[in-house]
# Entry
Amino acid sequence: MSDLHLKPIQPVDGAYNLPNYKAVYQEFSWNDVEKEFSWHQTGKVNMAYECIDRHVAEGYGDKIALHYVNGDEEQVFTFKDIQEKTDHLAAVLKKYGVKKGDIVFIFLPKGPECYLAMIAAIKLGAVAGPLFEAFMEEAVKDRIMDCEGRFLISDSELVKRVPRHELPSLETVFITEGPDKCRENEISLIKALEEVEPEKNSIEWLELDDRLNIHYTSGSTGKPKGIVHAHRAMIHQYQTGKWVLDIKEDDVYWCTAHPGWVTGTVYGIFAPWLNRATIVVNGGRFNADSWYSTIEKTGVTVWYSAPTAFRMLKAEGNEALEKYNLSSLRHILSVGEPLNPEVIVWGIETLGKRIHDTWWMTETGAQLIVNLPSEAIKPGSMGRPIPGIEVAVLDDNGIPLPNGQIGHLGIKASWPAIMREVWKNEEKYQSYFINGWYISGDLAVLDEDGYVFFQGRSDDMINSSGERIGPFEVESKLIEHEAVAEAGVIGKPDPVRGEIVKAFIVLKKGYTPSADLLENIRMFVKQKLAAHSAPREIEVLDELPKTKISGKILRRELKARETVKVEAR
Ligand code: PRX
# Structure
């Protein structure tokens, strides 16, 4: 390994969209960005219009908007195609009662239908609620139930994980396939599209603060919370697409995340389409050959992924890499978990490119701390705040600490993409703020140049492969298993996934630990909740460490045991 990771890595010369960070930081105002949107003149607001219809109106209808690849299958859609298909789909949704403000859950695999459904729902002023394709019954139920979702767009496979009998609010379920694939009370979209005339200009004009989408996200306590964003977020999402993704007219852009995660929506759909980029959608699961071949086949120039994916590619070695021509790549970015210096070195040595870390959260709605292509990267740092954003490291009372000290990463409120609300939970929303600062829950250190270094979480939230997992949710599921009396769940450090979910359990009387039993418990969580939430390790203890007074499980103590084990190796 070279010593690259010890010193800043300088940018290569290029015509970047933000060439002079420091100067722009001094004078930038979010108001300047508003001029870029058609609503600045017309007063008519809708994210879907700015992403699609506007480009058609401005003469870019024939430009490729979406290139879908799944193994040997490929489909290509122009902006005009997307406009027509989403207008048509919107007409169907409208006929079945979808209107402004309704939540439309979208539970589909990563494929064109998912993207079309998102845009169609937003055209009608509905609130798009994308669900991750790996969610199982309980995870789906919790989310739809929490906000009493009335509409769902799914397919005949995933809909089997939607327990309709337990979801009285769910009135209408659309299936993307033909009537032969639909069960009772399900509407075939193929049939409905034949029956309903396409409607031009299906767009409902809105206010900037009207609701746009809802993403459920985990914390360290309670069930996942519904984080709602407003159309106003487009100001921030557009600008970071320009500055941070550095999108230009000829770019082919690939974000590897499913829209069920905030990255897959914000940087998989909105930011690139607001910047009129061609997006690539890769169906199927992670696999080095399929990923490299997608880059080669579609000519990806800008690639946004996550540390676990890069680490998995690194672990595959150069054999897979050497089979493909990846010379189209010009800009690579990462998000979701700490990006190890080793991975940055791997990127330089094998892909010949720097990997640019970015930091943000579901709640923040867009990137806040980033490494720009025009600036030096300090390996191990998440970068610096974008213009328009002020960050600080704060003590427990919300007072800024000097550089070099570890504390709570805070962001001066507010900015255009910040969450509009936590669904029906004002108390939770308010709990994020202190002294005018948004408190992220992350711990960080600032250096003298303003670079931010991630130091971990201040709570028990688990980050496995960039996916946010609440220990409470997993613990609740574990104790539903007939053999489990108590459970404590933590994130255990892992070289590939950052952290893995590890469960400590106490068995009920009459049960003895065995490999079969533990596997059965693991599968129980996997089948009910989601594969990524299922503990990769389960350890049986006689008792769990608890606080003396309230008897709460001390996850911190469980975590300390694991960290000590790793360090001792
Ligand atoms: O702990 C931070 C981590 O992911 C959390 C946010 O997770 P989520 O809402 O799912 O959003 C992920 C993608 C926007 C943060 O509180 N995180 C995110 N980016 C980074 C990170 N940790 C370290 N480095 C990052 N670049």
Observations:
- The mean pLDDT is 95.
- The two ends are 21 Å apart (CA to CA).
